[in-house]
Design brief:
With 259 residues, this protein is of the alpha/beta class. 37% of the residues lie in helices and 20% in strands. The chain has a single domain, classed as TIM Barrel, CATH 3.20.20.
Length: 259
């Protein structure tokens, strides 16, 4: 079974989706799913914003768990919250822990760089911080959506692989040396342009010694589960990367093609 290893439900601040709807949608598509609810310790909103309560979440979703329905968490990595995040990951029986960079230092990529008047985020700032976060957070199971800023900023030259190939090399070296796979986030791979943009990135990851990727749609609605997976499967197969998922924090090879 192929797994969508990155989805959200009503347990995350930015989703209203019921778990049952997500599970039903995944079954119709022949996919396994891993709920990965948000936990960003340094988010500047309310005290519970983007900070899932693991006790409530895991207790409520225990009844849904099966071979094809697992429970994980997406942790927002910052240098301020490393110890908090490490303790969180070790204290609960998550199946899967994604580490994602939603902030560069104390600055939120979406709220501060995109929606405010603060100076623009640069590729150098972002990729340097991603590399640092992998070094400081080697307890994670996979690195989430390396192309996260491009959702909002667009694929300008400052974020291009050609401009920052050496920084990608550092990121990949940090991942591979720690046996941490990278996520192939399918959210943006809807057409040829983004497919061709991402192909050399994941090819470089393979050439550096990386062999495994998780597939994640980052769906916040049931209808988006498995979104663009055909393109993700094609991209990984073209390079030779193997899709994987995690259960009980252990990595398993996933089926190479969705139903």
């Amino acid at each position: 079974m192929l797994f969508d290893t990155h989805i959200h439900s009503k347990m995350s601040t930015d989703s209203e989706e019921e778990a049952t709807a997500a599970i039903s949608a995944a079954k119709k598509k022949g996919l396994g799913i891993i709920f990965t609810e948000h936990y960003d310790a340094d988010f500047v909103g309310g005290p519970s914003d983007f900070r899932v309560n693991p006790d409530i979440y895991l207790k409520e979703y225990e009844k849904y768990k099966s071979d094809g329905v697992l429970t994980g968490i997406e942790i927002g990595l910052t240098h301020m919250s490393t110890e908090i995040n490490k303790k969180l990951a070790a204290s609960y029986p998550f199946d899967f822990v994604i580490g994602s960079v939603h902030m560069v230092g104390e600055t939120d990529i979406y709220l501060d760089f995109v929606k405010s008047e603060k100076p623009c985020l640069t590729g150098e700032m972002y990729f340097d911080y991603v590399a640092r976060m992998i070094e400081e957070n080697d307890f994670i199971d996979a690195l989430g959506h390396i192309d996260y800023p491009l959702r909002y900023i667009g694929a300008g030259a400052d974020f291009s692989f050609e401009t920052h190939s050496k920084k990608y090399d550092i990121i990949f070296e940090n991942l591979i040396s720690r046996n941490i796979p990278i996520e192939l986030n399918s959210r943006r791979i809807s057409g040829k342009e983004v497919y061709c943009e991402m192909l050399p990135i994941y090819k470089r990851y393979y050439d550096a010694g990386g062999r495994y990727v998780t597939f994640g749609s980052d769906a916040h609605k049931a209808e988006n589960i498995g979104q663009n997976f055909k393109n993700a499967v094609s991209l990984a197969a073209q390079i030779g990367l193997k899709p994987v998922y995690f259960k009980g924090r252990k990595m398993y090879i996933s089926s190479p093609s969705p139903a």
